Every structure is written in structure tokens, then in C-alpha cells.
Amino acid sequence: MDTEKNKRTYCNEFHIIIQRTLELELEKNNIEYSHEKIREAIKKMEYSEIRLKDKLFALRANLNDFQKAILKTLKIEKPKKMMELDEFKKIIS
């Protein structure tokens, strides 16, 4: 059996389930969406790692209204604009 192929299949199936769940929740909350709009919004939820005086920080990209709606729909608290990297990694893990 091809283990790598099984992992890819599992990841694809998981992605489809998560996306469909998000679509249903957005619909339930009367938030307009499309598959492409969801993919782009999630893809653009980025952060940068920066170093200031020997400390590492996470700097979050600005979120648009749709990205904020996704986080709210999923009951995920919007991360602070900037926080220590360790704290940020605890939140996203």
C-alpha cells in the first residue's frame, strides 16, 4: 500500500469536510461566500516572524471583513496584531 498516497487522500478528504462545514456555518449566519472566496481568504491569513532586541514576535497580516467573519463563525478569537512568537504558536496549535 502506498502510504504517501493514503496521506494525500486523507488530507484532501479532511480539507473537503472542513471547507463544507465552514460553508454550512457561513450560510447559517447569512454570510455570502464562494469556494474561491473562502480559499483566498484563508490563504491570505498570514503572519511574519520578526526579531526585536533578541525576542521573536509574530506579526499578523491585516484581516478583511470576510476573514474576520470566518474566524467569528468558527469561534476562533482574532489574534492580536503582534505578539511573542511562543504565545502565537500556542494559540494556533
Structural class: alpha+beta
Strand count: 3
What percentage of residues falls in helices of 4 or more residues?
A: 55-70%
Tell me, briefly, the overall form. flat
**Mind telling me the C-alpha Rg?**
16 Å
Short description:
By secondary structure, the protein is an alpha+beta fold. Helix content is 56%, strand content 16%.
Task: Please tell me about this protein's structure.
- The chain is α+β, with helices and mostly antiparallel strands.
- It has one domain (3-92).
- Helices cover 56% and strands 16% of the residues.
- The chain is built from four helices and three strands, in the order ααββαβα.
- The chain has a three-stranded antiparallel β-sheet.
- A hairpin with a 2-residue loop joins β1 (47-52) and β2 (55-60).
- The longest helix is centred in the first third of the chain and has 26 residues, at 3-28.
- The chain is flat and about 45 Å long.
- The chain starts with a helix and ends with a helix.
- The mean pLDDT is 86.
